[in-house]
Design a protein that fits this description.
About 75% of the residues lie in helices and about 0% in strands. The chain has about 100 residues and is mostly helical.
Length: about 100
């Protein structure tokens, strides 16, 4: 599939399908920085959803996977790094409510 399709699914709220497609893309080429970025943003949205449902342990799993994608994914503007930092902070706050 394509990063564009994953992004459209993600932005329309279809996170399960976006996740599946992003994983399939990454299986085709684990070293593709665009596929890594695509999965990262899906995971970010899933992480937020999990936090909102107080599923903190599952959110932490997403954070760990996001962290593993950061070093090699496309992130020229630093938006991914900022999103990761914000997700960590949000997860931490939700865990201590």
């Amino acid at each position: 599939m394509s990063v564009k399709e994953v992004t459209l699914l993600r932005k329309s709220g279809n996170l399960k399908e976006a996740y599946k497609m992003a994983i399939d893309d990454l299986k085709e080429d684990r070293n593709n920085p665009w596929a890594q970025m695509s999965l990262f943003w899906v995971l970010r949205d899933i992480c937020q959803q999990l936090c909102n449902r107080n599923a903190i342990d599952k959110a932490k799993i997403c954070l760990k996977e996001m962290s593993s994608l950061l070093p090699t994914m496309v992130d020229d503007s630093g938006a991914g790094e900022r999103a990761y930092t914000n997700s960590v902070s949000y997860t931490h706050l939700r865990a201590h409510e």
